[in-house]
Amino acid sequence: MARIGVFVCWCGSNIAGTVDVAKVTEEAKKVPGVVTAVDYKYMCSDPGQNSLRNMIKEQKLTGVVLAACSPHMHENTFRKAAVKEGLNPYFVEIANIREQVSWVHEDKERATQKAVDLMKMMVEKVKRDRPIEDVRVPLNKKALVIGGGISGIQAALDIANGGVEVLLVEKEPSIGGRMIQLDETFPTLDCSSCIMTPKMVEVNQHPNIKLYTYSEVEDVSGYIGNFKVKIKKKARSVVEKDCTGCGDCWNACPMHKNVKSEFNMNLSERTAIYVPFPQAVPLVPVLDRSVCLHFKKGGKCVKCYEACGPKCIDFDIKDEIIEETVGAIVASTGYDLMDNSLYGEYGYGKYKDVVSGLQFERLLSASGPTEGVIKRPSDGTTPQTIVFIQCVGSRDPEKGVPYCSKVCCMYTAKHAKLFAHKVHGSQSYVFYIDIRATSKGYEEFVRGTMEQDGAVYLRGRVSRIYEDEGKLIVKGADTLSGNQVEIAADMVVLATGVIPKKGSDKVAQMLGISYDKYGFFTESHPKLRPAESSTAGIYLAGMAQGPRDIPESVVSGSAAASKILGLFSKNEYEVEGTIASVNEATCVACFYCQRVCGFSAISRKEIKDRSGKVIKVVASVNPGLCTGCGACVNACFSKSIDVKGFMDDQIYAEIKSLAI
Amino acid sequence: MEDKKEGTVKSEGNNVSDPRIIAFVCNWCTYSGADLAGTSRMKYSDNVRVIKLPCSGRIDPLFIIEAFKKGAKGVLVSGCHPGDCHYISGNYHSRRKYAAFRDLLGFLGVDLNRIEFSWISASEGNKWVSVINEFTDKIKSLNDNSSDIFKK
Ligand SMILES: Cc1cc2nc3c(=O)[nH]c(=O)nc-3n(C[C@H](O)[C@H](O)[C@H](O)COP(=O)(O)OP(=O)(O)OC[C@H]3O[C@@H](n4cnc5c(N)ncnc54)[C@H](O)[C@@H]3O)c2cc1C
Ligand code: SF4
Ligand code: SF4
Ligand code: SF4
Known about the structure:
Distance between the termini of chain A: 26 Å
Radius of gyration of chain B: 15 Å
Number of helices of chain B: 4
Strand order of the largest sheet of chain B: 2-1-3-4
CATH class of chain B: Alpha Beta
Shape of chain A: globular
Largest interface: A-B, 46 and 49 residues
Number of domains of chain B: 1
Helix content of chain A: 25-40%
Number of helices of chain A: 19
CATH class of the largest domain in chain A: Alpha Beta
Strand content of chain B: 15-25%
CATH architecture of chain B: 3-Layer(aba) Sandwich
Oligomer: heterodimer
Largest sheet of chain B: 4 strands, parallel
Shape of chain B: globular
Structural class of chain A: alpha/beta
Strand content of chain A: 25-35%
CATH topology of the largest domain in chain A: FAD/NAD(P)-binding domain
Helix content of chain B: 25-40%
Radius of gyration of chain A: 32 Å
Order of helices and strands of chain B: EHEHEHEH
Number of domains of chain A: 4
Bound molecules: flavin-adenine dinucleotide, iron/sulfur cluster
C-alpha cells in the first residue's frame, strides 16, 4: 500500500501570498494513499528538510510530493534528503506551485484550485513510481582524437600528460593541420613552425600517444566509456619503422612537375612519393598511388625502391584496419577555406596573382615555394602594391555565409604588416567592412599595421578586378569618403571565409553528434558546455566548432582534454536511470523503436535457452546511449517499451486526476 | 447531451467561460520557458494544467485523446524548437507524427481548433504567456459547451 506524504511549502509569502496553503494541505489529506500532509514556511531550509526526513521515517512513507517551487530548483535537494532516509530518490515528486502558479496568477481561489490539481496529479504519479537505479557504465580509459591540427594536438598532449593513452588519427601524411602552413602568427608574430614543430615532435615521441597518420576513422559504434572504433590506415607503401626520412626516394621520383602540392596550396609541385613539408611528423613519405607511375603503367617504375637504402618501399602494402576500444573521443577536424570561384568579379582562378590568404601564407613562409620571398605566381617578380580584400564569402548571406570568419581581419593585418616588412617601399590597401580585432593585443596589432606599416584601410567593397598591362586593376568604393577608387595592384589577396573541413559532416554522422547548417559541430550547450558534443563521451575542439584562432583552438583542445581526464578520474560513469526499458515478455521484435531512436540506443538481443538455442529476439536498450527521450515508447505497437519515471500508466493517471 | 465523463466529476469550472486546458510539454524547453514566465512574474490565464514529459517525442497522440475524454476543452503540445531539441531529433519525430495525427483527430470529429502545437524555448517565457492566453481565448470563443468533444 502506498503511504504518501504531501508537503506544501509557503516559500515565505511567495507561494502563501497567492495560494491558500492550508487548503492545499487539507485537500491533500483527502486523496487516497496520502497518510500525512503538512505545510511549512520553507521546505528547502534545513529544518524543512529535517521535517521531511522525520516524516519519511516516522510515517514509513513510500513516496513524497512537495508542492513547492519548480523541480528545476530543488528536486535534487529533496531527493538527497529522501535518500538519507532510505527512500529511492525517484519517489520524490514536485508539484510546481510557485513558478507555474503563485507567481503567474492573481486570483487566490483559482490559484489555490490549480495548486490542488497539480498536487493531486503528482500524488497519482508518485503512487505509480517504481524504484529506479542509476546505471553505471564501465570506462575504457583510452581516448581517440580525430584530427591532428593544433587543437587536436593540444588535446592529445594534455590527455597523454594526464597519464591516459591516446590514439591520434590524422588523415593527411603529417600532423600539423593549417597552423603548420602559416608563416608568422598574429598578434605576436612568432613563427608558426617554430612553435608548432616542437609540439608535433612531442606527440610523436610521447609514450602515451599512438599516432596514425594517413589514416581515417571508418566506423564508430558503442557509447561513452565503450566506443568501438575502426581506423583505416591507408597504404603508405613505405614501411614506417625502417624509413629514415633521408629523401633519396622522392629525389629519385621522376614525377617532378606533375602533381600540385596540397601543402603549398597548389603554388608548387611535388613528387609521387613525398613528404608534404620538410618538418613533417612523422618524417616518412607517402606514395600517392593515384599518380605513381608504378601503379599507372603496370609496375615498371621502381626508381624510389632502387634509391631507398633500407629498402622500405613496398608497393604491395594494403590498407589496414585497426580496431580499438576507447572511452572518449575528441572531434577536431578543423577547416577549409570557401571556394573563391564563387566570386567571379575578383578573378580568382582566372588571374594567377589573385590568391587566397592561405596561399599568401605559403608565399611568406621560408619553407614555402618561394623560400619566403614574396613573388607573384604569374611571373615571379616581387609585388610593390598589394590589395587585400576582407570578408570574401563571410558575412554575405546571399553568395557566401552569414557568419564572420573571425580570423581574417587579423590575418589580413598580419599579411599587410609582413609585406611591409619584407618589401621596403611597398604599399598595401585593405578593403574592409568592419575591423574585428577583439582579443588581447589585437586592436593594437591592427593599429600598428595602419600607423607604423602604412597600410591604407578603405572601408567598402570591391566591385571588379581586371587585368591591364600586367597590373590588376581593382575598382571599389571607399564609403567613408564617398569616392570610387581604382588601384593598379601587382597582387590581390582574398581573405576568404572559413568553412568546416570537407567531410566533417560524415564524421559527425559517424559519431552521431549534431552539426549546424554550415557543418560546424554543435556544442551540447553553447555557453555552459562548450567542449561537449550532443553525445555523451564525445568532445569538440578547434575550428571544427566554428571560426576561431590559434589561442582559442588551443584552449578548446585543453578543455576537451580536461573533460576527458575528469571523466576518466572515476572507474565508472553514472547515467541517470530514467531511461527506456523493454518488457521482453511482450516485445515482438518489430524494431519500430529502433527506427525512431535518434541515439542508436536500441539493439537486437537474442534470448537463448539452456542449450544455447535462440528462442526469442527482443529489443534491448543500451544504457550508455539511451537518453530517456521516450520517442521509442510511442513507436511501439505492443506497448513493450517504456521510459522509467515517465511510464504510460503514470501519465494516464495524471490526466485522469485532472478529469472534470 | 449525454454525460460520458469519468473520474472525479466536479461541477465547478470547465464551461464555455472557464474551459480546462491541458498542456503536454517537454522538460527541457517549454517547461523551463513556463518557469521563466514565473520567475519574470508574468501573468497568464490559470485555465492551463501542465503535464511534464521528457521530450515532445514522448507525447503519445493517445494522451491527447485521453485528455479530451477526461474533459479537457483544449490541448496544447509544446516542445523545443526544431533543431534545438535536447534529444536532437525528438521534436522532429513529434512533428512528423502530429501531422498524421491531426487528420485522425479530425476524422474522429474533434474540432482541430482545440489542439495547438507550439515550439517554445527555455528563453521564451513571453511566448509561453501569449500562447496560453491566445489559446485560452480561442477555446472560449469556440463557444461550445459540449462535454463530449467527439462529435460522432
Ligand atoms: C590565412 C590564415 C591565416 C591565419 N593566421 C593565424 C594567425 O596568425 N594566428 C592565429 O591565431 N590564427 C590564425 N589562423 C587561424 C588558424 O589557422 C586556426 O585557428 C587553427 O589552425 C585551427 O586549428 P584546428 O586544429 O582547429 O584545425 P586545423 O588546423 O584545420 O586542423 C584539423 C586537422 O584535422 C585533420 N582532419 C580533418 N578531417 C579529418 C578526418 N576526417 N580524419 C582525420 N583527420 C582529419 C586535418 O587534416 C587537419 O590536420 C589563420 C587562418 C587562416 C585561414
Ligand atoms: S628513401 Fe627509403 S628511407 Fe629514405 S625517405 Fe624514402 S622510404 Fe624513407
Ligand atoms: S574577421 Fe573580419 S574579414 Fe573576416 S569575416 Fe569577420 S569581419 Fe570579415
Ligand atoms: S528513450 Fe529515446 S534514446 Fe532511449 S531508446 Fe527510446 S528513443 Fe532511444
